[in-house]
Amino acid sequence: MRNTLLDMKKLYVSDKRSSKLLIVTSKKVGNAPYRNYLRRCTKIIMHEFATAFRGIHTAIFFKKQTNRVTFHQIRAMLCGKLQKKL
After folding, report:
1. Is the pLDDT of residue 69 over 90?
2. Fewer CB under 10 Å: which end of the chain, C or N?
């Protein structure tokens, strides 16, 4: 699933109840505090949807066009992608 600000890919589906999340933010996205902010926001949002992603390993790639988006914008993008995926 592609977006102008991020890509989300389902890597692996397991029979187990555990899931893994990979968040990739390159240096082109911004400085270290901003990249960490993106990772923290994404982890919080994905934790809200933990039951929907049980057993699915997911990778999220932030693109370099991600210029100072807020938590609510990230949540809206991920919610849209999650609804399409489910």
Report:
1. no
2. C
